[in-house]
Amino acid sequence: MKYELRFLNIDADIIKKTLNSLDKKIIKQKALLRWDSFDYKDKFIRVRDEGNGKITLTLKTNLNSSQPISKTIFVNNYNSTIEILKNIDINSKYRVEKIREIWELNNKCIINFDMFPGLPYYIEVKSNNKKSLMTLIKDLNLTIDPRKHSDMGADTMYLDLYNIKKNIQIGDLTFVNAKKFKKYIKKNNTLFEKILKEQLETIKRL
After folding, report:
1. 176 FRET partner, CA 20 to 30 A, in 25, 95, 119, 150?
2. Which of 198, 51, 15, 30 is nearest to 101 (CA)?
3. The model's pTM
4. What are phi and psi of 36, to 5 degrees?
5. Is 141 exposed, middle or buried (0-12, 13-18, 19+ CB in 10 A)?
């Protein structure tokens, strides 16, 4: 069982500096991720290309808590897995891309630094050991957000930073089509353009 916590509105540079002081042997990776998301009853299902040759199928439960429970297996074909789910009437809602930096510590805690198109970093801290997770959260001086995990998604981030309303049907959330978001932005237009430009340059280097 893996425990995870999400933190928005963070200073990624400060967190990275703190992590480097806590652990001198952190394993670091950066990749472009894509996934298809599915809702099934009160559960969340995801098929994801991890960007490093690995493809995963994840089931998340306990979504009405700030600490959802996640179970993941590896699969060998992205499109075939989606097709199997469709054949049992579990259909994809949308496709998403994001840039991810994975920092794996010696204590087996994993910190994911994630960016959706046009958005700054947020982080997810994960561990199979709840005590190790909570110790790391304390060391990073992070405050647990009481909101449900399902209320801390990309739609919330776009609303908070750019005032893009949650009920707008934008469709797939990818870096290629991110410019179409501009017509929905009500504030911080320049910031959106700056972040997206930097992200597209990062993707070219991956």
Report:
1. 150
2. 30
3. 0.81
4. -110, 135
5. exposed
DSSP-assigned letters across all residues of 9-27: S--HHHHHHHHHHH-TT-E
* Structure tokens that stand for 99 in this block: 């840039």
Comparing CA positions, the residue from 89, 112, 87, 109 lying closest to residue 100 is 112
Cβ-contact 34, 96 below 8 angstroms: yes
Q: What span, in angstroms and rounded, lies between the C-alpha atoms of 14 and 197?
A: 23
Q: Say how many Å lie between the first and final Cα of the chain, rounded.
A: 31
Question: Across the strands, what pairs with 39?
Answer: 44
Burial label for 113, CB within 10 Å (0-12, 13-18, 19+), is buried
pLDDT digit string (tens) for 112-163?
999 999 999 999 999 999 999 999 999 999 999 888 777 888 999 999 999 9
SS3 state at 101: strand
Question: What are the two backbone dihedrals, phi and then psi, of residue 187, each rounded to the nearest 5 degrees?
Answer: -160, 160
The rounded distance, in Å, linking the Cα atoms of 70 and 182 is 34
- Over its C-alpha atoms, the chain yields an Rg (Å, rounded) of 17
